[in-house]
Amino acid sequence: MTNTWVSISRLDRPLVAALMQRLLSSGVRTADGDSADFFFIPLVMRTKGQAATHLKAVVYYIRQHWPWWDRLQGGHRHLLVVPADLGRRSLPEEHLQMTENVTYLTHWGLHSNHSAGRWVESHRPGRDIVLPPLHNADEPIVFSPLHVLNSRHKERTRGLFFAGRICGDGKAPHEGRCDDTKSSFSGNIRQRVSMHHWNRTGWTVANHVKAYTSALSSHTFCLSPSGGGYGRRSVQALIMGCVPVLLGDGLHQPFEPEVDWSQFAVRVPEEDIPHLHHVLEAINESKIEELQGRLWCAAQHMYYSTTYGEVMGEDGRFDAFEMLMEILRMRRDHPDLDPREYTQMDTSFADFIDCKLAPTGGRVALCSQNRLVKASGEPRLRPCRNEHPGLQMRSIHMFYSWPGGAVCGQNWTIAACPRSWI
C-alpha cells in the first residue's frame, strides 16, 4: 500500500475521504450517537488485504467503546465503504458474516450470479447502496457539452461509441475477435459486442481512438459495460451528454434501483448483443430526444460536484453526495419501502430525482472545472484555477486542497461552508 501519511493524495479510490469531508461540511454529522440516524465507519477497504487486516479489529473496537452496534442488532444502520472492483465480495467470507446487517457503500451493483464473468452476487438491493465512482476534474468530463453556458453543440451521429480494453489479455482483437484467454473479463460482454459489431458502419468499437473526448461528444449512444468489475463509462457518458447503453444482466448502476436508469439510458439484455444494432435503430428520434433531455439532471446525481467543482453549470444541490443523503433519508423515513417505489411514495424524493426540489438552505456557487466553456471566453464562468491559483486542478490533489470540498470555496471554516440543505 502506498504510504499516504507522506502524501494523502496517493490514496487509491479515496471515497472514504471524500465522504468524510462532506459529512463534516454539509452539517449532517452529530456527536450524539443516540440521535444519529446512521453510523459512518471511516475504514479504508480498497483491497481484501486491508479488510482482512483491519475490519475485525475495527468492529471489536466499536463494540468495546460504543453501544450502538450491539443495540442495533449487530450493525444495522452502520455504513461501510468498499470501493474495490467487486464490492463487498472482495471481503473474506468471515467478514461478510460478521457485517451481515451493515449497509455497504460500493461501486459494484451485481445482485445475481453471472456465469460468464464468474461473478458471485454482491449487492443487496434495499440494504446496500451503489455509489458512482469518483471522477477527477479532468478529461473528458471537464469538456462536458451539457454546461448551461455552452453555446457550441456538436451534431451527434446516430451510431454507438466504445473505446477501451476489449480482450481479457489486453491485446487488440483481430477482425473483432479475441482468443479465449481471460474470456471472463467484462463478463464476456465487450468481446461479444466487438465480435458482432466491430466493422458496423457508423459505429466505433475499438481499443483506442485519438480523440476520445470528441467522440463522446459526437455520438448519440455510448456503450457502458463493466470491466474487471464495476465500470465508469455509464457515468462518464451521462456527463458528456451521450445516452448510456447498458449491458450486464443482473447489474445495478449507481443509485439503482432507487434511481430509474430507464429514464435516461438504454438497457439491453445480453442475449440481444448480436442484434444490438436493431435495438438501437428501433429507437425513434422522439424517444432519443426524451432520453437526452434527462441527461443533465441525471448526470448531476452521479458526479461529486460539491467535492470537485461544477462541470455542467450545476450548483451541487443534487450531486452524488446529496443523492446519498436523500436515499438515507428515505431509509430512515420509510425503512420497509421497496427502493423501486421511492419516487411513487415520496414527492420530495421524486422532485429531488427530477432536480426540481427547492433548496432549504442558502445559495451555493461552485467554481467551475469546465474547460470547454472557459475556452470560449464566457465572462460569467468562475474557473477553479482562477479562484485557487497554484492548485493542481487536473488531479485528485485539488480535492485535498481545502477542507470540506469545493463547496466551501475559500472558506477554511467547515462549519461556515455554504449549504443548499439544512
Automatic annotation (TrEMBL):
It is a single-pass type II membrane protein. InterPro entries: Exostosin, Exostosin_GT47. Pfam families: Exostosin_GT47. It is found in: Golgi apparatus membrane. Its main location: Golgi. The keyword Transmembrane does not apply. The keyword Cell inner membrane does not apply. Residues 19-282 form the Exostosin GT47 domain. Keywords: Golgi apparatus. GO terms for molecular function: glycosyltransferase activity. GO terms for cellular component: Golgi membrane. PANTHER family: EXOSTOSIN FAMILY PROTEIN (PTHR11062:SF376), EXOSTOSIN HEPARAN SULFATE GLYCOSYLTRANSFERASE -RELATED (PTHR11062). Belongs to the glycosyltransferase 47 family. This is Exostosin GT47 domain-containing protein. The lineage of its organism: Eukaryota, Viridiplantae, Chlorophyta, core chlorophytes, Chlorophyceae.
